[in-house]
Amino acid sequence: MNIASRITGSTHTFDSVREVLAKANEEKSGDELAGLAADSEAERIAAKDALGGLTLETLRQSPAVPYDEDEVTRVIQDGVDEAAYERIREWTVSEFREFLADEGTREAEIAEVRPGLTSEMIAAVAKLMSNMDLVQAASKMEVTARCNNTVGAEGTLSFRLQPNDPSDDVENIRHSIREGLSYGVGDAVIGINPVEDTTERTKRLLDVTKEFIETWDIPTQNCVLSHLTTQMDAVRAGASADLLFQSLAGTEAGNESFGIDVDLLDEAYEFGDEHCTASGPNVMYFETGQGSELSSDAHADVDQVTLEARCYGLAKRYDPFLVNTVVGFIGPEYLYDGRQVIRAGLEDVFMGKLTGLPMGIDACYTNHIQADQNDIENLAVLLTAAGSNYFITVPMGDDTMLNYQSNSYHDAAALWDIFDMSPAPEFEAWLESMGLMEDGRLTSDAGDPTRFLEGAR
Questions:
Q1: pLDDT level of residue 455 (50, 70, 90 thresholds)
Q2: Region label for 152, one of left (φ > 0), alpha (ψ between -120 and 50) or beta (otherwise)
Q3: Looking at beta carbons, which pairs linking 230-233 to residues 24 or more positions away fall under 8 Å?
Q4: What's the pLDDT band for 8 if we cut at 50, 70, 90?
Q5: By the 8 A CB rule, do 327 and 369 touch?
Q6: What is the pLDDT of residue 456?
Q7: Which residues contact 190 (CB under 8 A, 6 or more apart)?
Q8: Hey, which residues does 394 pair with through a beta bridge?
Q9: pTM, to two decimals
Q10: 408/401 Cα distance (integer angstroms)
Q11: Gyration radius of the chain's alpha carbons
Q12: Burial category of 79 from C-beta neighbours within 10 Å (exposed 0-12, middle 13-18, buried 19 and up)
């Protein structure tokens, strides 16, 4: 397929939809590393112009990875609602953008077309949007989910409490949980990244978090982010898990590098529905991140934004409670600096919500990336305005186990205050019963972790 665009007197031609998608992407170091990026700003603009003229039907007929070669493509294509697709298939990508940006388009209208979309359509429209466009369109979308509480309702902003420890020391983890809860975070999940991915360690950490939740009657959920098969083995060994977690990629080969496939995810989905201890119905948790496929040489010559959208198309199959992008965690090879991290975070939350996912983010960066804490705080403000369901928080914004920087427990109070928002309603009621919140604001007792010491009641 030859696709051409004439800009400022020069004609630019592209050999495929996949090439147009890649070259229309905003500047990303990962695309440059893969040799997929536009050679110049002029070529980038030409690719955007060409992409805007393509129909959604053309994008459906041209998946980034062929249907017969990739099971992620098959999941996405087979999941399309044909009636919804028939309504929009003749729209151009530019017309789709205008629909999303229109003041009269709200969640109800978006919900009508959402089942007819493929991930390539979602990635394409994101590439035609400015940062403000992404915030404005995402802010219209309300996607809720329920595990032991409800996230994503209008006026709420939730947080994952991430009490990681470099040695999986149980008492250090308990201290971190106490501190996080005292600042009002933890309604999305109390989720631990273990140092040691074993059944025994996973069971121990699940038991510790579940015991803490039950002791203080906290309306939240626990999760240990070991490999999916390890978590299932831990549950078979008697552990209590509210959520099952797994990292996802946007290609079959990328998922193979994670040690998973659709059959395993299907099995885990059924297993979680039967064995997870949450009231549900949503018991799956997925993480993604632009560039993960390239890091395992599984990107199939597809740009990282399109691959990220395909992650969300796969996640949708499992009706998850939480999905988040770890936007700056992989490093400068994929997102070079704060500007690229901010852009990617806005793209990811927009694409996840447009897919229909309860989308959150780890607004983060590694120590060798060209970014700082102001970049991450800027992103947190922008994404709260965009309606991100939740953020990840770590003590003082510094994860000493994974060695990267994120939002801190303290950031929750600032974001709630700036945007007049609250935690999940069940969790807010619990905070009020603990004397940590009153009339939607943290009390003077907030930040005192000793109230969660044994016998403090």
A1: low
A2: left
A3: 230/197, 230/198, 230/199, 230/202, 231/202, 231/206, 232/268, 232/271, 233/199, 233/202
A4: confident
A5: no
A6: 61
A7: 160, 161, 163, 177, 180, 209, 212, 213, 220, 221, 222, 223
A8: 408
A9: 0.97
A10: 15
A11: 21
A12: middle
CA distances from 115 to 222, 297, 387, 418 (A): 30, 31, 20, 34
Q: How far apart are CA 232 and CA 203, in angstroms?
A: 10
Integer angstrom CA distances of residue 159 from 192, 333, 387, 409: 13, 28, 13, 9
Closest CA to 309 of 265, 386, 258, 249: 249
Instruction: Yes or no: say if 331 and 366 are a contact pair by the CB < 8 Å rule.
Output: yes
The yes-or-no verdict on residue 454 having pLDDT over 80 is no
In terms of Cβ atoms closer than 10 Å to its own Cβ (0-12, 13-18, 19+), residue 410 is middle
pLDDT digits (tens, 9 = 90+) for 377-391: 999 999 999 999 999
Contact 289, 329 (CB under 8 A): yes
Cβ atoms of 12 and 5 within 8 Å: the answer is yes
Residue with token string 């499992």: 318
User: Judging by beta carbons within 10 Å of its beta carbon (0-12, 13-18, 19+), is residue 115 exposed, middle or buried?
Assistant: middle
Neighbours of 417 (CB within 10 A): 12
